[in-house]
Amino acid sequence: MKCDVDIRKDLYGNIVMSGGTTMYPGIADRMQKEIQALAPSSMKVKIVAPPERKYSVWIGGSILASPLHLPTNVDL
């Protein structure tokens, strides 16, 4: 894994699946097994597959694009 050593534990422990292709049956278990095999043996891998993950990307984008997140003092 090519990232800062200090954040690896957090990254391995907080993997969130999102998007339509993650809806295949058994994909979360498969990802768990494959990532666990690649991770150091002492590392805890946690895969989160929320039921609404098919739309998670769209929901996140709509939240970021909402007027509450846009700057108010922009000179065009």
TrEMBL record:
Organism: Schizosaccharomyces japonicus (strain yFS275 / FY16936) (Fission yeast)
Protein name: Actin
Stored Pfam families: Actin
InterPro entries tied to this protein: Actin, ATPase_NBD
